[in-house]
Write a structure and sequence with these properties.
Two copies of one chain form a homodimer.
Chain A lengths: L4 E5 L4 H16 L4 E5 L2 H8 L10 H15 L15 H12 L5 H13 L8 H11 L3 H7 L3 H16 L7 E4 L2 E4 L4 H10 L3
Parallel strand pairs in A: 1-2
Antiparallel strand pairs in A: 1-3, 3-4
């Protein structure tokens, strides 16, 4: 059985949200599992000397327009959050904890978190919002919020970010298909060819 | 008759080369003219505080891989030039001069210049190479190389770069379709929808 695909993302990354549904559909189509791996882009930006997209002169203005248009193009509901970007350290830890329990609800967590942030304009890094998210998907809210302060989970996120940087991840979504790196939701056509026909 | 599409590009931009053929095919399919407008990305990078892609840590390594893979994905012959990026000020001026003569060979010039740089590894900013390019496409080589030093052509390129910056161009290819900006060859699917169905 082939190794799972990997989808590195940050919960504050619009393109990670916009690409999620189509990526998941591709994985299903080609019968591949996916490891959804939350990271913190701030650390990656620091390593590569980059800034958050919307803070760059000229490029930032275009990015806001492109994000909204790309969401419409992909039929994904989207409203630019009033605070953007945000820290997502607690959200990422909550997901890592959920994954560590062997829960089958990881993807539901991710989808609901994106929806809360990019449609409902809620700060998904707040523990109160994370508790509501847990309830929405039928997970123990108290255990999940407590886990965001668990040293073992904190270390796990640090290690995941380090691993991502070590593997060259500098933006999101950043996908690996059998070792091949693809950056950006706009590379999904290339991902599909790779899944279908192998290396090209 | 609708206004021509615009394709802002730099002769040293691999993605401008990779996207050219598909963009031109889209324009033909939807019966639209195109203004191919050479600029100098160095000036745009200065305005936006960006660096050349391949010089950015992490991102640069990925970019080299992505450029070669994207060329294969688009069936475009490609060999990373031994010197990259290069100044393309003379190449851009030569094209501006050719366009100013009303010649129908602009697209042939662009295609041949890209081929010389990205397939044959020739420095297309050298006047000797520009003279050969002129001969290849059946244009007066002496007039073309002389034009690269013509103050009026120099001013024209400066004005074009200024106009591009004023309109938010920060990278290449940067396309306008009826006022809507699209950055990157990977936005061609969105360009096509815009051409086909109008604003979305």
């Amino acid at each position: 059985m082939p190794a799972p695909l990997e989808y590195f993302f940050d919960f504050t990354s619009p393109y990670s949200y916009i690409g999620l549904q189509a990526f998941d559909a591709l994985a299903s189509k080609y019968r591949r599992g996916v490891n959804y791996r939350p990271i913190l882009l701030g650390a990656a930006f620091k390593a590569s000397g980059m800034q958050a997209l919307v803070d760059i002169p000229l490029k930032g203005d275009y990015a806001r327009r492109d994000i909204e248009r790309s969401a419409r193009f992909n039929d994904v509901p989207f409203k630019m959050p009033s605070t953007f970007p945000i820290s997502t350290v607690n959200t990422a830890r909550a997901l890592l904890w959920l994954q560590s329990t062997g829960s089958a609800k990881s993807l539901s967590f991710i989808q609901r978190a994106f929806q809360m942030y990019f449609v409902e304009d809620r700060n998904i890094n707040d523990l109160a919002e994370i508790a509501e998210l847990a309830q929405d998907i039928g997970v123990d809210a108290q255990a999940m919020t407590a886990a965001t302060q668990d040293p073992a989970i904190k270390d796990k996120l640090k290690a995941q970010v380090e691993e991502a940087l070590g593997r060259g991840v500098f933006g999101a979504p950043y996908m690996f298909v059998d070792g091949e790196p693809f950056w950006g939701h706009d590379r999904l056509p290339q991902v599909e060819r790779w899944l279908k026909m192998g290396p090209f």
